[in-house]
Amino acid sequence: MVNTKDNKGSNILLIGFMATGKTTMAKEISKKLAMEYIDLDKVIEEKIEMSIADIFERYGEEYFRQVEKQCIKNINQLQDTIISCGGGVCLDPDNIVNIKKAGKVILLEGSPETILSRIKMDRNRPLLKDKDDIEGIKRMMDERKYSYHQSADIIIDTSGKSVLNVRDEILRAINE
Ligand code: S3P
């Protein structure tokens, strides 16, 4: 593993399971800190000119991961930007190295119950299509937990907290 501690970029990256509020928080923090924000899923959608759901359906997950990896490689060009990453970014060891280099990595966590209540009716999350029950979500979270924790500089639990509470907690943690 590359030691990136001493040479971190100036970005703030939000990672975590689907529907933990990464995009919402990226917007909130960017307003407070007067920094630009980008959503990596949106970058991919614009690049391929297709929704995430359509990319999965038409080209499959492997193709999506290739495009995602390419976009992550390019984030070292960004500075002072809040970057909301897709929930699967940390599944690839090269991506972990690249996001750690790019800046401070904040992991947002949420209970399976919270996630389930947020994803109901959301059709743009292909990986949860057949796993939209507590057990399915829990299993997937457990499989990913190690990668998420390995990537994170800061961990914030969002369960049962308001958007503003989570935002302030993130801001405090960044300044510590
Ligand atoms: C994924 C999460 C999604 C999106 C894609 C794959 C994942 O992003 O990148 O559907 O593997 O967890 P969000 O975490 O923003 O939903």
What this model shows, in words?
- The chain has 176 residues and is of the alpha/beta class.
- Helix content is 52%, strand content 14%.
- It has eight helices and five strands; from the N terminus they run E-H-E-H-H-H-E-H-E-H-H-E-H.
- It has helices at residues 22-33, 40-48, 52-59, 61-74, 93-102, 112-119, 134-151, 163-175; strands at residues 11-16, 36-39, 81-84, 103-109, 154-157.
- It starts with 10 loop residues before the first strand and ends with a helix.
- It binds shikimate-3-phosphate.
- Shikimate-3-phosphate (S3P) binds next to loops.
Task: Give the H and E element order.
Answer: EHEHHHEHEHHEH
Question: Structural class per helix/strand content?
Answer: alpha/beta
Shape: globular
> Low-confidence parts lasting 5 or more residues at pLDDT below 50?
1-5
Q: How far apart, in Å, are the first and last alpha carbons?
A: 25 Å
Major β-sheet annotation: 5 strands, parallel
Strand content: 5-15%
Order of strands across the main sheet: 2-3-1-4-5
Count of helices?
A: 8
Number of strands: 5
Radius of gyration: 15 Å
Q: What share of the residues lie within helices?
A: 40-55%
Mean residue pLDDT: 92
Query: What ligands are attached or bound here?
Result: shikimate-3-phosphate
